[in-house]
Amino acid sequence: MKLVDAVSQARLYEEAGAVAISVLTEADHFYGSISDLENVKKSVSLPVLRKDFIVSVGEVYESRIKGADGILLIVGALPKERLKELYDVSLELGMWVLLEIFEEEDLELALELRPSILGINHRNLRTLEIDLTKCFRLCPIAKSSGVRWVVAESAIKTRAQVLELEDIGVDAFLVGSSLMKSSDPAFSLRELCGRV
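The chain above was modelled as a monomer; its predicted structure follows.
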């Protein structure tokens, strides 16, 4: 994947109709940085999500200090007590939390926190396998359990996929790879949103 300037990319997405900006801050595998988050926040008017493998309270505070409006917490990557602690601290600091799940077991644990926002990732981070049926299985359960916004994550490439997922109750889409690989990411984003 080509490296891009986070600020330029964020501005491009804002102009193309994004409703929030996800900023990767993980350095070793995704070449992001906390300064990318800080710079993006100063450059766009949209809410900014810190997307990283957050495991400590210190990282939650750092996220807020650097301008994050929300953070990603991966349910399957954290012990239950730590997940609740990080979730609670995030809310206390005035941030929203995108709780990310991969499996049915993750959903059960996530629902104990009564989240407003739940991300269902089609890509299993352990195996990198894609399962596009996950939202179809898990979204109805999440919605009937009181989750207000369900976010479909990973492997979203076409407007047809977006429409199909909206039909089952998905509210938003976290799209990364397909936009980053596009020769015209602004057009690709408008296309996904049905604005072309």
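Residues 80-92 form the longest helix (13 residues).
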